[in-house]
Amino acid sequence: MVNERGKFQFAIDRGGTFTDVFARCPDGRIRVLKLLSEDPQHYEDAPTEGIRRILKEESPQAINEDDKIDESYIESIRMGTTVATNALLERKGERMVFVTNKGFKDILLIGNQARPNIFDLNIRRPELLYEEVVEVDCRVIPALENVCELGALSKKWRIAIGQTGQTFYVTQELDLNKVAFELLKIRQTGIDSIAIALAHSYSFAEHELAIGDIAHSIGFSQVSLSHVVMPMMRLVPRAFTACSDAYLTPHVKRYLEGFAKGFDNSLLNTRVLFMKSDGGLTAMSEFNGSKAVLSGPAGGVVGYAKTTWKKETNLPVIGFDMGGTSTDVSRYAGNYEHVYESTTAGITIQAPQLDVNTVAAGGGSMLFYRSGLFVVGPESAGANPGPACYQKGGPLTVTDANLALGRLLPEYFPKIFGPKENESLDKDITLSKFGDMVFDMEVPRKVEEIAMGFIRVANEAMCRPIRALTQARGYDTAGHALACFGGAGGQHACAIARSLGMSTVFIHKYAGILSAYGIALADVVYELQEPTLKLYEPANFDYFDTKLKELEKKCLKALRLQGYNSNRIVFERYLHMRYDGTDCALMCSPQSSTNNATQHGDFMATFVERYQTEFGFKIDCDVVVDDIMVKVIGKTSICEEVELPESENTPPVHEKTTKVYFEGGYKETKVFLLSKLMRNNKIEGPAIIMDNLSTILVEPACTATITKYGDIKIMIGTGKMKEISEELDSIQLSIFSHRFMSIAEQMGRILQRTAKSTNIKERLDFSCALFGPDGGLVSNAPHIPVHLGSMQEAVQYQLKTRTDIKEGDVILSNHPAAGGSHLPDFTVITPVFHESTKNPIFFVASRGHHADIGGITPGSMPPHSTSLDQEGAAFKSFIIVKKGTFQETEFTKEILKAGGRNLQDNLSDLRAQVAANQKGIQLVKELIGQYGLKVVQAYMKHIQSNAELSVRDMLRNAAKDARRQCRDVEAEEFMDDGTIIKLKVKLDGETGSAICDFTGSGLEVWGNCNAPRAITLSAIIYCLRCMIGHDVPLNQGCLTPVEIIVPKGSILDPSEGAAVVGGNVLTSQRIVDVVLKAFQVCAASQGCMNNITFGNERWGNYETVAGGSGAGPNWNGVSGVHTHMTNTRITDIELLELRYPIYVMKFKIREGSGGAGRYRGGDGVERELMFRTPVTLSVLTERRVLQPYGLKGGQPGARGVNTLKRANGRMINLGSKTAINVQPGDIFEILTPGGGGYGVPGSKTIKIEDLPITKSYVERGSLYTFKLNQESV
């Protein structure tokens, strides 16, 4: 941002709490300002007020008599704003209507059918954006001419060619008059904004355009067409994106109009640019809702990228932005890292966004002491009431902990706190609240020890996602520099860098307003994107080159209209590429090449390199180009910063000395003002460096140096490690909890990167875990419910049956009798030895779902199996690695003998599991190197004991409830075939223990609904965690207070040869029903996963279908969602119809299927599929005979129904479980069960607003997406 015309230039970041202003004056001086984003008593708009205040001091004549700003003094205004984000979070956008195809009115309510938090019985789905839905009776499907066999029916349909060159059948033409009638009714209600998203409109946009024209003619002022907003495949995320655009854009435009009114000519003659989510600026007239969600945080990424990379360090950089209400992390290594689909506040948006990961609640993270653990967040005090020290009745937070330790100095803060916002931070309130916390602790502690403990736990909690962010892409975390900014980050930077093994921290002089400064440095970006869906092959190179040139011309024209000439314009070209048959697409730029490449360069080389780096291998198959994108960048001229004078070896002068608490006690700490420091000044820690916008703590053994431009570079020393004993320390327990979980998470990242199959790499159907020397589970990630207890059983089986566990050996197991859940889940177990120990000191294991391991049907999940050998290869204890050598020949023999169809994927995934285990071993050995073996093993036991404590507390409360209600804790439920599952629980309120006795449950069945014992353990752990109601370590300790009795030979512990595939996906759900019924927790959910498989000898598809969740004591059930032991996402309609000869005719809520009650059960769904070629349809379901129960007088949910409608009109009830051959034109309809109601219908309900609500930070970014994907397996 170079001042060329002698006028003021402003760059502004309007954040959630504060608005930061960076101004360059006509004489080149810099002014910075921070003010509250909301202060209605003093000003209407914070950015306008910031500009006004600076102009008032610098050029008073720039403020007119009517208090408007004379914009002739201003050359440019650049702004990032959370206006769109806040409207999305608070659901305060425009009233709008959503238009989609008939049969899909609930498509966004159902979404991908996964629930947000797998352990919440009270499922909270974010509110939808639209107020009304209009279904239009029009439809297109991919023609698939070579496989479609509908014959006469398809000949009636019009053939159309889409933008991508695809051929479509128009199965239903659009009735324009009917659409106009429906939209007019909506417009007359006052709704003025409309989003239109039709299936396959990314390519065939004819119907969307026609409806858009009608909407404009009727008078809708905002019309968002999904193929225009974001022309990418997949209906659900594209429709969400169109809705977000229709919902947010009018809101953003109103804000912009209000902002412009503060200036005398409404900014008509001033260059105003807004920051988009992708890190580029755009003209105010082009700024829209769907590209504005990360407008503010994007500035910070640009800021640290342009001030750190290749300037202060050659290392790749981790951005660490810790503010008052959120903590964001990101990475930069020469190029901005983008994601092209992300979820914010429950809304999935397809748009280029910088990969900014919100991982914690910042300085406002609330502090709890719970069940012997120090817990930080995720709840946040927010900006109001804020931390306790703000004097507004707020809770203890990380900010309070820093204040209590002397790391924040109230005298350097503005007096903006207290009820009248005219007081300083109040340390006395903070110390008093920490003093009250002492009484909750078993071991008395000083206030400073408690505060220090919370800081250490908070730091470790923030280190976990930074490790994940780097290692997910194959990078070494320690090989990065940490760029720290935000108001709260400077107090934590040294400790976090040291924990991560980083040697360098960089803190810019404008770190407190780095987002605003980044906006000043940002470039103007204009991009266009089009779908292609063509193979990357020489025959299509001319097409790609032509399309790229067309988009270049359009982008160039747009940028030249903004005044950019050719020497300041840079082009970036991208192809969105993926291996055929996979879902993971990468946006790739070209490398220079003269051989076998497009005129623009070799995109394939970039794709292969990136895929290899990110996933560890390449695939020998075709590569598909989904989309083409061109970015044109108008480069910003950056003014050279003024260099500081040399210090000439003069030591820096400190302002005062204060006492700051570190490990080991208080230390005398010098306080410096950044404004008085000179170039090359060196400051040895401990020290505090203050500027007007942030507080920087230089910890002991660290050295800060002032750079030539006045920034701070800190070299991190090793420091002296605090000695940790084997005795339980609750602070150290919390830290070890994070470290153990981080080990399991990092194992999972290695497994995902190096595996080959879609199941592991993209569906993320795996778990990794750490076990103690007795095989007891210590940590497990992710928390896939069906894996929770069963992996422990698998490890302990090896200990019971093997006396020859040797170093260098790795064991493969999947047999139900050996702790397996079902055969496709291969568990790879590695024993770990230490130095000269004879026995393993711990175990690591990884469990992954292999797509095919033999058996009578492809996919190894036959719906009609009656014995285990029909389901594939079974291994109780197979040495897959012997003395360090992978036993490929022996494994190949076994898998082929069982009929395996995908040997190479099996081998690749097994090698990946072995590699993941090796990573776990390395990480635990690092932990042992840091703390010693005895300490690590002691804390393995302590963390298990802590989980036990939480379960005992819950069981004591359950015993009290049962006594108060004078009832036995018991229940029984029947499977659809009449088999009983019976449970009687004997609770001991004194010890907090329970005996769960399943005696009386039915015999194993002639079929595959038998559940291995490990499944019962997993179901019980899942129920215990749900009933506890907050995060606890999920490990062996959860089951220590619980004795489980399961009769041998029953459906819950069948004989070794019994078929079990249905037990994993059906009976597991019914076990949960019985447990929750016994404890009277909530009504039954749908009690089923609704497993549907269809295909032939060439292809197959497997899906599970959502239903209704059960109501509870103060909540209604949720409709169209997966519950309990599954959380599987469903394939998007467009992908399904493109890949397979299937026509999805309906996918909507089954209204009225939830049970009535004081709180109503959630409804199931209706789904109709027309088959376009002969296939075998397999159905494996439950709750088709017996309804999901209601509780406390609530009515049961509706039972499910499976119906086949033959093309000749014949209707067939398929029952719960069957396999049947279907013909072209046949339609399968599934009606899934609803959830049960809770309480007598018509009785008084508790209003939701009457219940206590705590705020939490809103997660986002690639790490959050990864977590959602893992928890939806």
TrEMBL record:
Residues 547-708 form the Acetophenone carboxylase-like C-terminal domain. It comes from the Eukaryota. Residues 238-527 form the Hydantoinase A/oxoprolinase domain. Residues 729-1241 form the Hydantoinase B/oxoprolinase domain. Pfam families: Hydant_A_C, Hydant_A_N, Hydantoinase_A, Hydantoinase_B. Residues 10-218 form the Hydantoinase/oxoprolinase N-terminal domain. InterPro entries: ACX-like_C, Hydant_A_N, Hydantoinase_A, Hydantoinase_B, Oxoprolinase-like. PANTHER family: 5-OXOPROLINASE, 5-OXOPROLINASE RELATED. Belongs to the oxoprolinase family. This is 5-oxoprolinase. The gene is LOC108560536.
